[in-house]
Amino acid sequence: MVLVSVRDYEQRAHEIVPRNALDYYRSGAGDELSLRLNRTGFDRLRIRPRMLQGGSKRDLTCTVLGERFALPIAISPTAMQRMAHPEGEVANAKAAANRQVLFTLSTISTSSIEEVANATPNAPKWFQLYIYRDRKLTEGLVRRAEKAGYRAIVLTVDAPLFGLRRADMRNKFSLPPHLT
Ligand SMILES: Cc1cc2nc3c(=O)[nH]c(=O)nc-3n(C[C@H](O)[C@H](O)[C@H](O)COP(=O)(O)O)c2cc1C
């Protein structure tokens, strides 16, 4: 099948990604009420047509922290991408770089900070940080991101503890052993 939309990719993923990983990616916490509300929320958005405004010169470019991007939309941090594809975060970062879109690397990535930086040396990237109780470990991550040229730290503040992910509980979710 030719994949032409996000929904097509999602459907394909349902066919080929192992259950353990797929459920981790697709599930929400508890009864998944917020997940459903978010979907409904996005479905409510409409694009307002603006006719006879001279649409031949369209421009979605924007500047964020002094860097120019093609879209005012960035790739937010999502964990453990190599469960879906052997290149994982590296492929995602390369795709973002090709399209001049901002990529954010998750703390819980399955490609290292340096691997992703080396694969996309000229593209601005951000690094998402969880604050661990082990402050030395936390600082170590910040220093590595800084050294590897990440331009900003994206601080996650809504995870004092992880959600009750029932799909993961049912699957006894764990990272496949070939990944770190
Ligand atoms: C599978 C998955 C993994 C995620 N992993 C992380 C993560 O590692 N760190 C983080 O700060 N946020 C993580 N998030 C949260 C996203 O970055 C984002 O904030 C959230 O999904 C809301 O955006 P959305 O409505 O576009 O999905 C994850 C979300 C999903 C769905």
Jot down its keywords.
180 residues; alpha/beta; TIM Barrel; three-stranded parallel sheet; binds flavin mononucleotide
Explained architecture:
GO terms for molecular function: (S)-2-hydroxy-acid oxidase activity; FMN binding. Residues 1-180 form the FMN hydroxy acid dehydrogenase domain. It comes from Anopheles culicifacies. This protein has 180 residues and is an alpha/beta fold. It has one domain (6-35, 61-171): Aldolase class I (TIM Barrel, Alpha-Beta Barrel). The chain is built from seven helices and five strands. The protein has helices at residues 6-16, 19-26, 33-44, 88-98, 113-119, 135-147, 166-171, and strands at residues 62-64, 67-69, 103-105, 125-129, 152-155. It has a three-stranded parallel sheet. Helix 5 links the parallel strand 3 and strand 4 (125-129). It is globular, with a radius of gyration of 18 Å. Bound molecules: flavin mononucleotide (FMN). The site of flavin mononucleotide (FMN) has 10 residues, from loops.
